[in-house]
Write a structure and sequence with these properties.
Elements lengths: L1 E6 L4 E8 L3 E9 L1 H4 L7 H20 L7 E9 L3 H18 L3 E5 H7 L12 E6 L4 E8 L2 E7 L5 H11 L6 H9 L22 H14 L5 H27 L3 E5 L6 H12 L3 E3 L10 H13 L26
Parallel strand pairs: 1-4, 4-5, 6-9, 9-10
Antiparallel strand pairs: 1-2, 2-3, 6-7, 7-8
Length: 334
């Protein structure tokens, strides 16, 4: 069975076809980075307009070589995300569902990131201890089974990716900050400076304090230190915190199968440190670089399991910009 996926939660426009929740037939992603780079972050109005311009051509290209009768459903991100961007994807999906008479499948964007792993690891099955790390989210949760999630920890302020963007800006590095810090850090000493570890004794995260500590350190020392050393030290501390929380949650829950997802998982330093987890006996899953960032293939994979569970969304469904992991959006539909 083919599922058509549509993703427009933020600044990537993506359309994909996935077979049986496991095999990518086609996955197209249009990135808006160049459109938002001059502003140092995502501008919601620009993001919405770009989705409008690019979504229909992407849909046409994805479905041009398949028989519409083979499409078993249309999966679309309903939240969380930017309200304008979400609505555009949802309106397209509703229209196609009505015209083609296909089931409409609402998908939680955060949960969908984990389903990127089902596209690349044939043997992956829940339960999984999951760490989602992106520009807008840092969450640690237990994926008990399809549709069953237990939140263990989340950020109380900045997400990890957000902290990367803000630190990159104060160090004079370009947007997006994650790739910029990753690249410059390769020439730096990750143990040059020591930054704080907030909320060390709980599973929640806080990255605002690290960002502030980097700012104070940079303002005092920027004329006598190298950008690459400060960037590398910041990056090392963030990765240490992420993996330390993961180890603590594993000990708490007695689960050594861990899954990482989200844009920050593209970070090369983090990916290298994951080898240490594997050496410690953890069963570690993380996506290839193209599936770290927002994409419609993960949405289609998640939608496949929504369909299998009989969770067909009504055409009255709306966007939920503040949707949480494990939150049942269908109960809001009446």
């Amino acid at each position: 069975m083919l599922i058509l996926g549509i993703e427009t939660s933020c600044d990537e426009t993506s359309v994909a076809l996935v077979e049986d929740g496991r095999k990518i037939v086609k996955n197209l992603v249009f990135s808006q980075v160049k459109d938002h780079a001059p502003y140092g972050g995502v501008v919601p109005e620009i993001a919405s307009r770009k989705h409008l311009e690019t979504l229909l051509p992407l849909i046409d290209e994805v479905v041009s070589e398949v028989n519409l009768e083979d499409i078993g459903g249309i999966a679309v991100t309903v939240g969380p995300g930017l309200i304008g961007s979400l609505v555009i994807g949802l309106m397209f999906a509703k229209t196609l569902s009505w015209i083609w008479k296909k089931p409409l499948l609402g998908v939680n964007h955060l949960e969908a990131h984990v389903y990127a792993l089902f596209l690349e690891y044939e043997g992956i099955v829940p339960p999984l201890l999951c760490l989602l790390v992106s520009g807008g989210h840092t969450e640690l949760f237990l994926f008990k089974d399809h549709g069953s999630f237990e939140m263990l920890g989340e950020t109380r302020d900045d997400a990890a990716g957000e902290a990367f963007d803000k630190v990159a800006r104060l160090l004079g590095l370009p947007y997006p900050g994650g790739p910029a810090i990753d690249e410059v850090s390769k020439r730096g000493n990750p143990y040059f400076a020591e930054f704080p570890y907030p909320l060390e004794d709980v599973l929640d995260f806080s990255f605002s304090g690290i960002k502030t500590a980097v700012r104070h350190f940079w303002e005092r020392n920027k004329h006598k230190v190298k950008v690459e050393d400060v960037a590398a030290s910041f990056q090392r501390k963030v990765v240490e915190i992420l993996l330390d929380k993961l180890r603590k949650a594993s000990s708490l829950k007695g689960i050594n199968k861990v899954a990482l997802a989200g844009g920050v998982v593209a970070n090369s330093f983090l990916r290298e440190k994951l080898k240490e987890l594997q050496a410690e006996g953890f069963e570690v899953y993380y996506p290839s670089l193209p599936l770290c960032t927002d994409n419609a293939a993960m949405v289609a994979a998640a939608g496949y399991h929504e369909l299998r569970r009989g969770r067909i969304a009504p055409l009255t469904i709306t966007a939920y910009p503040n949707l949480k992991i494990g939150e049942d959006f269908l109960r809001f539909c009446g």
